[in-house]
Amino acid sequence: MCDALYIHIPFCERKCPYCDFYSVAADEALMDAYTDAAIRSLGRAPYALAPLDTVYFGGGTPSVLGGRRLSRILEAADARFGIASGAEITVECNPHSALGRELSILRAAGVNRLSFGMQSADDGQLRRLGRLHTAADVVSAVETARGCGFAHFSLDLMLATPGQTPADIDRAVGLCGRLGAEHVSAYLLKIEPGTPFDRQGVTAACPDEEGQAAAYLHAAGALEAGGWRQYEISNFAREGRVARHNLKYWDCREYLGVGPSAHSFVNGRRFYFPRDLRGFLASGGDFSRAVDDGPGGDAEEYLMLRLRLSEGVRWDVLAARYPDFGAENLREKARRIPGGLITFDSDGLRLTAEGFLLSNAVIGELLG
Ligand code: SF4
What processes in GO biological process is this protein linked to (predicted)? Predict the structure, then answer.
């Protein structure tokens, strides 16, 4: 039964010039109205969920909503579904925000994991990416979080940005280590169509495919050498500190999403709220506005998601979940994939680091 909740917070202090996540400029009255609508949405959600094992506030920039509003939404989730003992409750934070008081409120409300959008340890690169924070802000945010009682946090790094060198990546990974991050997400910069960077032609200043591959493999090597184990294409964690919520996505488990642009997978159906804050507010987050996205969770989808994980697909789990799926056909296709991109044995099938770089093509080949 579904035991995961995602809440989308559609506000940012300022839009980053490469980003296409759904968010609008932070505005106090709008944020009050949104908090009320999210609470109503949770109260009226026509789904029975198990007590929540994971709750994830993503965005946008959830921290701009502030501790009190986020706590009210969390209380509403608890009142509606219950929150299981030991649940992982994560809030994404901008290191630039004035966080001290807000983080104390969140910690008191039960939030136990923070994810900071660090991106780089170099102020010049942060400026060029249009970020509002500096490397010193990241250090200060993490110290503040620790002072508020947070022991678990993740840092995001951005790879293959214009002018980034292997030494820059090493410096960023080094800072993650010094700050004691137990989890790191390392993403290649993706300039979304229609964004300011796209219009300005910044793509031409970014590394080409070969340069992106080199940056990715360099970062993966540096993170592994620093003691984080790669468990997903873009995610690395200390022993036992994988992101439980995100792991449910990759394991093709169900989750409920609340907020404009939030996706859900519940009772075998996938659906999402439109990217429309005004519409969400006007309807009080009514799930009748959600757009049906068809059935979810078939064997093909499971394989596509699981192959993002370093652990890959285990034959025994595949057979238990999908008894009618012909795994022999998959093994036959795996034998034809060029060397070095996947490994498979009597336990299962998984992509290598090089395979992760070509994951879409390799997975397409396996499932085609
Ligand atoms: S990258 Fe994050 S902070 Fe920047 S606009 Fe996108 S959601 Fe907001």
Answer: porphyrin-containing compound biosynthetic process
